[in-house]
Amino acid sequence: MREDVVELSGDEPERLPGGFVNGAVRVGDTVRRSASPSGGFVQDLLRYLEHCQWSGAPRHLGFDDQGREIHTFLGGHVAWEETQPAEVRSDESLAAVARLVRQFHDLTAGSDLAGDQEVVCHNDLSPKNTVYRDLGCGLRPVAFLDWDLAAPGARVHDVAHVCWQYVGLGPRADVTEASRLVRLIADAYDLPARKELIRTILWWQDRCWKGISAAADAGEPAMVRLRALGAVDDVRAAHRWTAEHRLLLEQAML
Ligand SMILES: Nc1ncnc2c1ncn2[C@@H]1O[C@H](COP(=O)(O)OP(=O)(O)O)[C@@H](O)[C@H]1O
Ligand SMILES: [Mg+2]
Questions:
Q1: What φ, ψ does residue 134 adopt, rounded to 5°?
Q2: The model scores a pTM over 0.90
Q3: Top-level CATH class of 77-252?
Q4: Is 71 in the pocket of ligand 1 (CB under 6 A)?
Q5: Is the beta carbon of 19 within 6 A of some atom in ligand 1?
Q6: Which ligand 1 atom minimizes the distance to the CA of 73?
């Protein structure tokens, strides 16, 4: 048996909404989810962020007797549903997301975990992986979940993902408002590589629909389900929309 196998609670598991891949369940004050595919990297990262006393990620507590990872359960509002309270989409919350990203980027910059890259990127930042709490002035982001895809990378990668996912860049967006919000995020993060931002959003969108498509073709159950729900078509449409409005979005960065 592994040294870090622990049994923490006899509570009944409760299925958590908002995920597609890991079958996350809540057991008492913990979450159990299938082990990260990147092996020890994510566990090392979560331990490092705990060592830094950064409260924006769950703590890794070990593995249960089914081999699932155990994380601390973070109470609050996870924005996984299509319709969200206005505060979640407010300028203040968007800017706070950008500042929260900046915090863990700065903590990982120059660390062994970042290797020869600028920082460690989360690589899946989105409202459904974000915990919001009312800190006295409405719901604000306080933590990110689902660090499975975390890896060494460039700051602009995560900032671009934030712009795509939290602004909702795609056919349902108004380009003037979207441009304003993309700029707001870049400003709140204080992004150095602004000229690369829109190009990187396009790169993510293109990579995402191709990735879901290829994994669904290979028979990965979660990706087959995602494709059946229209995710490939939706992301392709988002990519086309961003490409069509590229110049306007880029102008907003100047
Ligand atoms: N540590 C946690 N604290 C609170 N809720 C969590 C936690 N981990 C996961 N969840 C909930 O479970 C959902 C799915 O978990 P997630 O880690 O995002 O898996 P998936 O890879 O399947 O998206 C999240 O959207 C969130 O609602
Ligand atoms: Mg998730």
A1: -85, 110
A2: yes
A3: alpha beta
A4: yes
A5: yes
A6: 3
182-193: per-residue pLDDT in tens? 999 999 999 998
Q: What residue spans define the domains of the chain?
A: 14-72, 77-252
The answer, yes or no, to whether any atom of ligand 1 lies below 6 A from the CB of 80, is yes
51-100 tens-digit pLDDT: 999 999 999 999 999 999 999 999 999 999 999 999 999 999 999 999 99
Q: Is 129 in the pocket of ligand 1 (CB under 6 A)?
A: yes
If you measure from the C-alpha of residue 147 to the centroid of ligand 1, how many angstroms do you get, rounded to a whole number?
A: 10
Give the ligand whose atoms come closest to the C-alpha of residue 80. 1
